[in-house]
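Protein fold
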Amino acid sequence: MKAATDKTKKIILIIGVLLIGGTLLLNEQLLAALFPDSLMTMPAGLKIGVLVVDALFALAVIFLLVSRRPPARISADVLVGIGFTLFLLAGIEVAFYYLNQQKQGHMGEVVFEFTTGGESGGVSFSGEHPRALFERDDWLGYRPVPNTQVIASRKAAEELLYRVHYSIDSVGRRVTPVDPLSPHPEYILFFGGSYTFGEGVNDDQTMPYYVSALAPAYRAYNYGAGGYGPQQMLAKLQSEDMTAEIEEPQGMLIYTFIGEHILRAIGSMRIHIQRGEVMPYYYIDTAGNLIRQGDLASGRPGLSILYSILGKSQTLKLFNIDIPLKLSEEDFRVTARIIEEARNVYREKFGSDRFYVLIYPGFGAPELLPYLDAANITYLDYSDLPDIYNEDFWLGEGHPTAKAHRIVAEKLVQDLGLQESAEK
């Protein structure tokens, strides 16, 4: 009898392992990679079916591996209860899927007209901007496609939020137009996410552009990109080709920070499932050293699998639930260490101590400041800049307008004395 029971348990374990495999394989990311054309035309009902079956697989795995009991010994009442619970959860997921679709529809779609190399008559299509504007990069995770021109428009319902032009230079930076006849003896390297890049504004409306226009002795290099965190700044500074991309002999670095960057630095669940799995992964080891270990997926495979499964939950998505639920001291410490290491690498490679963290208005993280102070990192805290709290300063989808970027640039130029230094 014991041998039969052991055999049944082994069968249950094998079934559980197979269900785990099915759960991991049955996801939109893998289907998109294997069948890109068919997934694009997949009916909504079939997509929902994929999500429901995947959820049922995951719940069945949990039940089987936790119970490890032969099916014959499980009462009919328990089976009915489990079945009812599974279908109830599946029904909730389906209902919340439709609610999420409606919510996404109200936010509006992003439409891109995509041309390469500045040539006219390129390919035009509708879709998310990572497809049009970004490409996979083994070191940074992803980067803007070099020599690219993109016209991007975004609508909320029938309202046009913006229609702008993005230009990317030969090394993947957002172009900052400059006067070719004006001398630029110094540089400013700008790092950050979409606020630095200038999501929703033209090339001559970004914060780096306004800084260079107000302080013409400095040439601005815009290394920002949508979704970037402090780890992309560090990774780029650690790359071999960094210094060769800058023409001027001296200058400074400005990193634009918002509170969201802490989640990007630690790779929260929401960040992970929004193309963040390819972002560089840094952690602090037991000896206190900052270590890079691949990307957020390869560097922590167990957590990556968990996030990939939980990230499919329409319930978590509807209520905007992220994991971790609350940031810890370790999260702030890791973020600050990444910034500190970027400062150290910049100092070593460029021979400059002029490294600044610009905390953008409205998006501060006061819990991080003591860690920046402990690392002797100079920061400009504009989180309470009063002039910025006005609807004229924000696009309807959440990014700053050109007016907001100009106000921040004026404050930055004044506080760093860039006009005065240019006049000397």
